[in-house]
Design a protein that fits this description.
The complex is a heterodimer of chains A (285) and B (270). Chain A is α/β, with parallel strands linked by helices. Chain A has two domains: 242 residues, P-loop containing nucleotide triphosphate hydrolases (Rossmann fold); 39 residues, no CATH class. Helix content of chain A is 39%, strand content 22%. Chain A is built from eleven helices and ten strands. In chain A, the strands form two sheets. A six-stranded mixed sheet of chain A has the order 6-7-8-3-9-10. In chain A, strands 2-1-4-5 form a four-stranded antiparallel sheet, with no helix packed on it. Chain B has 270 residues and is an alpha/beta fold. Chain B has two domains: 236 residues, P-loop containing nucleotide triphosphate hydrolases (Rossmann fold, 3-Layer(aba) Sandwich); 32 residues, no CATH class. Chain B is built from eleven helices and ten strands. In chain B, helix 4 packs across helix 5. The two termini of chain B are 40 Å apart. The chains are: A alpha/beta (285), B alpha/beta (270). At the A-B interface, helix 6, helix 10 and helix 11 of A face helix 6, helix 10 and helix 11 of B.
Chain lengths: 285, 270
């Protein structure tokens, strides 16, 4: 059981006039090796939630279990350093956090900080850079002179270099062009296939539809829904209630159903959907 | 009449690589034009050049018939407004009211006229309720709407949105898209929207597609999507309707090219 939230609440500024209850009695279990999407409107508690995973924030009530650690409200957590090595958290627009002189140094900073030798750290950094698609030519360049998409890759390589068991991503493709975003998602998908548990905060339903196994919906600091992706998108009305635009394929299905087409609700990919549409058009035409 | 004419424009940040490399195109006055292209293709640089915020290396930019040069710079900056990507980087005032007033103060608009103007544009972006709110209490979408009001108060002829919705959540994105659509419908303003949203491109009047600092294509969305292999070559994706049309063709169902889902449905139900 890599992640479990038990009655977790988080209140910012408790006991002050600015007191704000960002998480409210969240109960959640995430299985090992899954690719989970966390969705919800701004202010629903997504960022607060994910910062509990590596104890950047501590619960003000309840208990968070991450891998073999237990973080309970009111108790100072132990083994924080190893927890932060096991849970790699990539913030939004992580390219703003690059600071070293060269790409290699920036990526090697994490492993070095966790006690790796210079040589070992560089080796890990190189491997991480290759995974994100940056070849040796980039190693000695200043991270600050790269393009936005390349900087994002460096920042993500910095987290991968620590070889986390759980990868937590906060809107990792925001601002990237469609092809850059697709490549990034392919990377996370392959890391997930290698066995890493991946959690991703996103607003992009096409990505959720295509890559994720499970959806967690937060609303006003409460966990509203936890469902596998296929069941979640079977009912487009559910999406609309949550102010979410369903993926294009689902919308197309709906539009055609209104015109008399009939589809099996399990059809979820473009190829089988198109095949079925073609069959029905030919039959009726 | 042309709102923007760009001829053989070249610009470089480092004197080595041309970020904008011999670019020519024009934009009709009153049209809605989207500018698309991969990260680093030169879209934002182009926007800043048109707004007179960067200085070209060579070539010519003409705005509403005025050539962009030192003499006309002030005139052109009055005519071109630009809304940037990050809602937090363009909020200057301590309240919504102050923020909209900032540009007016710089233009020495008399105090008695200011209130009217502020109210008018706050209403246009549906922010009247928030006039005395501080920026920290606003959502990203609301901040962007205030930025738009502040620019509208300057009465520009051309309004550029440089990925103005890319940092917003779906609700914020919808708010801004609605404001832009209303502006386009209700005013004669020329709208230039830099975007990665391929579905937005399908609803625009024109598309300028950038690739590695050059214009790869300039025309209507239909013209742009006419050659799918070309679209993929410049690292862009096809709208869903076209992806599906390709799949249907593989199943032996040939349809006319269509770039919208509505167009596809219509053909399938014929």
């Amino acid at each position: 059981m890599p992640i479990k939230f038990e009655h977790v609440s988080h209140t910012y500024g408790e006991g002050t006039p600015f007191c704000y209850n960002a998480l409210n009695d969240v109960n959640l279990e995430l299985k090992e090796g899954k690719f989970t999407a966390i969705i919800g409107q701004t202010g629903s508690g997504k960022s607060t939630l994910i910062q509990h995973l590596n104890a950047l924030l501590l619960p003000t009530a309840g208990t968070v279990y991450v891998l073999d650690r237990k973080i309970t409200a009111g108790h100072q957590p132990k083994k924080l350093k190893s927890l932060r090595q096991d849970v790699g958290l990539v913030f939004q627009f992580p390219e703003y956090q690059l600071f070293e002189e060269t790409v290699l140094k920036d990526v090697a900073f994490g492993p070095k900080n966790f006690g790796a030798s210079e040589e070992e750290a560089n080796q890990k950094a190189r491997a991480a850079l290759r995974k994100t698609g940056l070849d040796a030519e980039y190693e000695e360049r200043s991270p600050l002179e790269l393009s936005g998409g390349q900087k994002r890759r460096v920042a993500i390589a910095g987290i991968l270099a620590m070889d986390p068991k759980i990868l937590v991503l906060d809107e990792p493709t925001a601002g990237l062009d469609p092809q850059g975003a697709a490549k990034m998602m392919e990377l996370f998908d392959s890391l997930n296939r290698e066995g890493k548990t991946v959690l991703m905060v996103t607003h992009d339903m096409e990505q959720v539809f295509r890559y994720c196994d499970e959806v967690v919906v937060l609303e006003n600091g409460k966990q509203k829904i936890q469902m596998d992706v296929k069941s979640f998108f079977k009912d487009p009305e559910l999406c609309r209630q949550l102010h979410i635009l369903p993926p294009a394929l689902i919308r197309m299905k709906e539009m055609l159903e209104k015109k008399g087409f009939e589809f099996d609700e399990d059809i979820m990919d473009l190829r089988s959907f198109s095949k079925e549409v073609a069959r029905q058009v030919k039959k009726n035409g | 009449m042309k709102a923007v004419e760009v001829e053989n424009l070249t610009f470089s940040y480092d004197l080595e690589v041309n970020a904008i490399d011999g670019v020519s195109f024009s934009i009709e006055s009153g049209s809605y034009t989207t500018v698309i292209g991969h990260n680093g293709s030169g879209k934002s640089t182009l926007a800043k050049l048109i707004a007179g915020l960067l200085e070209k290396k060579s070539g010519k930019i003409t705005i509403d018939g005025f050539e962009l040069n030192e003499e006309n710079l002030r005139e052109i900056r009055n005519r071109v407004g630009i809304v940037f990507q990050n809602p937090d980087n363009q909020f200057i005032g301590s309240t919504v009211r102050d923020d909209i007033a900032f540009g007016l103060e710089n233009h020495c608009v008399p105090r008695e006229e200011m209130d009217d103007i502020i109210n008018r544009y706050a209403e246009q972006v549906r922010m009247t309720k928030y006039l005395d709110h501080e920026p920290t209490l606003l959502s990203g979408g609301q901040k962007q709407r205030v930025a738009i009001a502040g620019i509208l108060a300057m009465k520009p002829d051309i309004l550029i949105f440089d990925e103005a919705t890319s940092m917003l959540d779906p609700k914020g994105k919808d708010e801004i898209k609605r404001v832009i659509r209303d502006l386009h419908r209700e005013s004669s303003m020329t709208i230039i929207s830099i975007t990665h949203d391929i579905e937005e491109v399908t609803t625009a009047d024109n598309v300028v597609a950038m690739y590695k600092g050059k214009v790869a294509m300039c025309g209507t969305p239909e013209q742009f999507f006419a050659d799918p292999s070309q679209v993929r070559k410049i690292h862009l994706e096809l709208p869903f309707a076209m992806q599906m049309e390709e799949e249907l063709a593989k199943q032996g169902l040939k349809l006319d090219r269509t770039i919208t889902m509505e167009g596809l449905v219509e053909q399938l139900c014929r």
